[in-house]
Predict the 3D structure of the following.
Amino acid sequence: MPRRTLRRSPGWHVASWLIPVVSLWFPFQNMADLHRAVTPAASRRASPLSYRFWWGLWVAGSITEWVTHAVLQQGETTLTSMAQAATATVLGEALDVGVAVFAILVVDDLTRRAVQARDEAVAEADLR
């Protein structure tokens, strides 16, 4: 895959998951770049809907986890606050299941497109 099609280096692709605030947007851009890199220009369109669902669920799950931690860090622990935190935790875990399902779809799509691009490049080279 030509390097010029990616906005960031491989190191930034990894680091973008670890940096607060940056992790809310860069990883989605990274996946969109990879999608663009392995999709022929003639059939290229916006990232598939599964990418957007995957990322939306990821962001929603992250925000849910942050809110849960904030609730637990507030002053006095009461039965009500613990029940709210447990509910938020269950919601966050459910979102994580959705993230995992859509991550599988995203990786499958990228892999299928990369293999197809490789096969087309090999076939083209054989014709020369």
